[in-house]
Write a structure and sequence with these properties.
The protein is an alpha/beta fold. Helices cover about 30% and strands about 20% of the residues. The protein contains 17 helices and 20 strands. The mean pLDDT is about 95.
Length: about 500
């Protein structure tokens, strides 16, 4: 049965969408989204979902409201699930009520999925509580941009100016002069605290604090432009003590993540949690080698190995996928020494039911060699499932000491199918492998790296960068994602 869901996408930070809203995005056949919707939310849509941009930016509309209404009805008649994705909450100055009425009048089934409105969330991200027992017992939400077709304003400026403690004007930047003048004319003291919040909840959030008398002038000087929110009242004065978002260590830093797309989330989420504006620029794609008879044959005779060495999470996942396809489980690994290159690889092994016997202190191939030095290698058989173009340091050591090392390439790295446009230079670029370095320079050149900070996950990646003549400003002491994030955070705190 056809149904339209009017879904609130939240104020901008994609983490603020509701669980129900996210589930509806995932199952939608059609998504009609507005300008203020964070595009990261659209990555959760089905691959075959139809995405329609409705625009609705200040003073610019890709589609008129009438066209949007028509599309909602048209798509609902042909699709099972239509999501109308709106910034903030659909019913708080979002015209969701108009769209719902239009659907109801035409017999189209619909549901409302409320969203976190910018009216409360944006001030919260600016460190402004809209109510406080000592300062504000009442709060009002007011549109700063009334329908131009109205013959008179429905805002009672007299009662509003003196009767409500905290005033929150949405879409108020364009008419800031009118709003402040009306409030002062109707009795609000000119010295009343006021602030403008632009791009609230996003890593480039900007807050301008002043009074009713000077907030317009201050906003112009600091280049404030729509969209934004105006907050008026004594609670604005609490921002000095309660500001938290802009104090995050990486706030406002645009950081490029060059890992493979399916592996980017962990690094990107950790950086975003620290306030960074994360730019995903995957320059590498991980593809399992298929078919792989050598791997299948090794798995069939797995009991004959003394040790298996895993040098990446990719090798773990692909190896155990092959184990499952060959009807083998972890019981077949009994007695085999398992070596993991680092804690992250070890964690993935544990999800497969395997606790590694060894993890080197230094999470590099050289660290694994230090472990091998404590083993009796002569005539022992080792299995090394790895990337096609990996270094042979481990292989040479085992063979030089009388051991047998079956090296089986199980995945290869390649250029991504889609290249991102780097029109805006990031503050920092992260590199997590030599392959990401080589591919980034092939795709974008190295001149761009002279204009930003460069962070490396470890000495091998650093060596590759230096071979290309690129300066490395940050190198992780612990050679994994958490170590890289810690090093970046420490760098900016120090700076």
């Amino acid at each position: 049965m056809a149904k339209v869901y009017l879904v609130g996408a939240g104020p901008g930070d994609p983490g603020l969408i509701t669980l129900k809203g996210l589930e509806l995005i995932k199952k939608a056949d059609v998504i009609i989204y507005d300008y203020l919707v964070n595009k990261d939310l659209l990555t959760y849509a089905k691959k075959d979902a139809e995405l329609i941009y409705a625009g609705k930016q200040a003073s610019r509309h890709e589609l008129t409201q009438g066209e949007i209404n028509r599309i909602l009805v048209e798509k609902a008649k042909h699709k099972n699930v239509v999501v109308r994705l709106k910034g903030g909450d659909p019913f708080i100055f979002g015209r969701g009520g108009e769209e719902a009425l239009f659907l109801a009048e035409r017999g189209i089934d619909f549901e409302i999925c409320p969203g976190v409105t910018s009216a409360i969330s944006v001030p919260a991200y600016a460190g402004i509580p809209l109510t406080h027992r000592d300062y504000a017992s009442t709060v009002a939400f007011i549109t700063g941009h009334e329908d131009t077709g109205k013959t008179s304003s429905s805002i009672n400026w007299g009662r509003l100016s003196t009767g409500i403690d905290t005033l929150v004007f949405l879409m108020g930047i364009k008419n800031l002069d009118i709003i402040t003048r009306k409030l002062i004319e109707h009795g609000r003291p000119p010295e009343t605290e006021a602030c403008i919040i632009m791009h609230g909840t996003l890593p480039w959030q900007k807050v301008v604090v002043g009074t009713l008398a000077d907030i317009e002038e201050l906003s112009k000087k600091q280049g404030v432009r729509p969209p934004g929110i105006l907050v008026v009242g004594k609670v604005v004065g609490l921002r000095g003590m309660l500001s938290w978002f802009e104090k995050k260590p990486l706030f406002g830093k645009k950081i490029a993540v060059t890992r493979a797309k399916h592996q980017s989330a962990r690094l990107g989420d950790a950086l975003a949690e620290r306030g960074a504006d994360v730019l995903y620029v995957p320059v590498i794609d991980i593809k399992p080698i298929k078919p792989n008879e050598r791997l299948n044959e090794a798995i069939k005779t797995i009991e004959g190995y003394f040790s298996i060495i895993f040098t990446s999470t990719n090798s773990v996942n692909i190896f155990f996928d092959a184990m499952n396809k060959n009807n083998k489980d972890t019981r077949r690994l009994y007695g085999i020494k398992i070596i993991a290159i680092g804690d992250v690889t070890a964690s993935v092994l544990q999800t497969k039911g395997v606790i590694p016997d060894y993890i080197p202190e230094k999470w590099t191939s050289e660290g694994i060699i230090e472990i091998l030095k404590g083993m009796e290698i002569n005539k022992q058989r080792f299995l090394l499932p790895r990337a096609e173009d990996a270094r042979d340091v481990i292989v040479h050591y085992i063979r030089d000491n009388g051991g047998i090392c079956d090296v089986i390439p199980i995945y290869k790295t390649s250029m991504p199918d889609r290249i991102e446009n780097l029109s805006e230079i990031p503050d920092l670029v992260t590199f997590t492998s030599s392959s990401t370095v080589k591919n980034f320079i092939t795709l974008y050149g190295k001149e761009i790296l002279k204009r930003c900070t460069v962070a490396s996950i470890g000495p091998v990646t650093t060596g590759t960068l230096k071979d290309y003549g690129v300066d490395v400003h940050i190198e992780a002491k612990k050679h994994d994602i958490s170590g890289l994030v810690e090093a970046i955070e420490a760098y900016y705190i120090k700076v």
